[in-house]
Amino acid sequence: MKKIYLTIIALITTLAVSAQVPVTQMEYVDLDLPSGTLWATCNVGADSPEQIGTFFAWGETEPKDEYELGNYKWMTKAPASEFQYEKYTCADGRTSASWYFGNSFIGDGKTELELEDDAATANCGRGWCAPSYEQIRELTSSFNTTSEWTTLNDVKGWKITSKSNGKSIFIPANLALSQNDDPHGFYWSRSLNTENSTQAWYMFFNSSNIGAWHEGVRYSGFCVRPVRTYTLRPVEAIDLGLPSGTLWANCNVGANAPEEYGDYFAWGETKPKSTFNWANYKWCDSEKAKLELTKYCNNERYGTVDNKTELDPDDDAATVNWGSNWRMPSSEQMKELLEYTTYEWVTQNGVYGNLMTSKINGNSIFLPTRDWSNGDIYSYFWSRSLDTDNSQNACILYSFWGLMNRENHPRYCGYNVRPVCLKATTSINSVTANQKATKRGKYISGGNLVIEKDGKQYNVIGIKVK
Question: Closest Cα to residue 385, out of 453, 451, 311, 291?
Answer without folding.
Answer: 311
